[in-house]
Amino acid sequence: MDQEKKLKILFVSSEVSPFAKTGGLADVAGSLPLALVEMGHDVRIAMPKYKFVDCPMETRFDFPVLIADRKETAIIRESHLEAKVGDFYQKVPVYFVDNYQYFDRDSLYCFFDEAERFAFFCRAVIEMLPGLDFKPDVIHCNDWQTGPISVLLKEQYAIIPFYQNIATLLTVHNLHYQGNYPKDCLELLGLTEEYFHPDKLEFFGEVSYLKAGLVYADIINTVSKTYAQEIQTPEYGERMDGLMRKRSHDLYGIVNGIHYCEFDPLTDSCIMTNFDHQSVEKKKENKYALQKTMHLPVGDMPMVGLVSRLVDQKGLDLLEEIFGEFVKNDVQFVVLGSGDKRYENFFKDMAKRHPEKVAAYIGFNAPLAQQIYAGCDMFLMPSRFEPCGLGQLISLRYGTIPIVRATGGLADTVTNYDPVTKKGNGFVFKAYIAGNLLNAIQRALSVYGGETDQWTDLVRGALQSDISWSVSAKEYIKLYHIAMKKKMKMIRSA
Ligand code: ADP
What we know:
Blueprint: E1 8-12, H1 24-29, H2 32-38, E2 42-48, E3 58-67, E4 70-85, E5 88-98, H3 100-103, H4 114-132, E6 138-142, H5 148-157, E7 167-172, E8 180-181, H6 185-188, E9 202-203, E10 206-208, H7 209-216, E11 219-222, H8 225-230, H9 241-246, E12 251-253, H10 283-293, E13 303-310, H11 316-326, E14 332-339, H12 341-353, E15 358-362, H13 366-375, E16 378-381, H14 391-397, E17 401-405, H15 408-413, E18 427-429, H16 434-449, H17 452-464, H18 470-493
Parallel strand pairs: 1-2, 1-6, 2-5, 6-7, 7-11, 11-12, 13-14, 13-16, 14-15, 16-17, 17-18
Antiparallel strand pairs: 3-4, 4-5, 8-10, 9-10
């Protein structure tokens, strides 16, 4: 197959930055398509039109979508993603699937009718294509919300010539979130009882939207090589490890990149002082500004940051365990996040108890996140598991040294710093033990407090590292070709 061929890709995601974001999926969906367009491919994005998305958009058309025995209206609206690359603006068309009943709500997820909302979204995405006169070579699906697309395409639409040779790729950004619903949601998807089978959509007595994608997509991948291996084991497999091993020949790992224009310490308008590897000394102006914003004493003590969903996955129980010891150091700690009440209350409590050292902002705040990435010296990610992790990539981009547990994408992107050889870009621990996290923090603090040049070199090295999409976007192109080849083979043998 011609690897130079310009591909037509439909990228489908339930969240896309800057329109709607709860985590790393939005960052990927808002940046990978731009990197692919930059390579000359025709990429379009599809996502739900949530209530709070208020960018200018053009209404294209509407059509009825069958959900169980009812018809619901899908309205397709169009806007675009834009980024300045060099002297040019790259644009990616974004198709918003609108339906007031399903998406005109204050937040993205966790509603009683989740199975119905995303059954509607998946079917609408497939059915909007002829109206757009866009026949993709590959539909690139992401996470459970888009899982049903592959099964619907193969089992219901393949008889229509337009859809016959569209290949599918499913990217798993987090295997923990599976979209499992009672058996009767098969009706919403227009699938018969026959699909309630362990080889199809049945998953421990329920129907799994993620499994629908994992079984029926031509090719599957996850967001780092290590996580692609880990999820084939019972420890990380979230009860899907058997299926992962079964599909291991079709399972790939591609590490995420970040958008170099969106996350650029030299141009970022959210931070106090812009800087790069040639002006490392300016970075500390951002620390002073952050200290003021967070009502902490202003000074040169090391500052550790954490920006995260506050959930068990992120290894926060380890931090809880060692927090008392950690704050005995001459250090400041800033956390931005929301999630489980247990962790929200813990950090609020710590901020009250140690007002000179700890500051907590509970909530979602994108500009403050940038200020933390830019202002801190170190960034914590002691995750129990981490498919890829964007926090450590963004922090490296801002010269903030990550302290991480070696799992998933953290293991693939952060290497332990050795003060003797001066190799490594962060501080890494392996076993999920609180003492190991404390040890990694102490090692970082000791390098910070040692020779100034050593820490500055570490920061400069981080600022110079390439964590853009340049390598990984090419890997995705290869994967699209593999998916297309597999699809063609299947059609020929049918
Ligand atoms: P996950 O996808 O598991 O949430 P990632 O590290 O892959 O974790 O991506 C998290 C993304 O969400 C990063 O861009 C991070 O900066 C951002 N983020 C997480 N929590 C917040 C918050 N409370 N406010 C602003 N940005 C946040």
